[in-house]
Write a sequence for this structure.
């Protein structure tokens, strides 16, 4: 195991950084408990001469916990449910998925 994998494992095990969640497949209804790091960056969208700021909800998930997420899958964090929208993307080391979520 290399140092980066070990560091990612420690970050996701830390309750101050990551929270428990549940992934539910849209196609097979399979459920898997996962840990996620929640992010909520503002997104700026330009339309003509106007610029609009909108809230977003994103989570980062270890590839080891969730090997194959797809758009339409459900992520449940506490009492909140979200649908994965758009294609999931991985980091350079291929250890972490970034998922763009939409409230359901």
């Amino acid at each position: 195991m290399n140092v980066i994998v070990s560091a990612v494992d420690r970050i996701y095990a830390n309750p101050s950084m990551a929270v428990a969640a549940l992934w539910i497949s849209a196609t097979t209804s399979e459920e898997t408990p996962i840990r996620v790091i929640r992010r909520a960056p503002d997104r700026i969208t330009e339309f003509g001469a106007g610029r609009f700021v909108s809230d977003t909800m994103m989570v980062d998930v270890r590839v080891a916990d969730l090997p194959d997420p797809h758009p339409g899958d459900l992520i449940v964090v506490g009492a909140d449910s979200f649908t994965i929208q758009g294609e999931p993307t991985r980091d350079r080391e291929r250890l972490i998925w970034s998922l763009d979520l939409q409230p359901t």
Remarks:
- The longest helix spans residues 3-13.
- The mean pLDDT is 92.
- The longest strand covers residues 31-39.
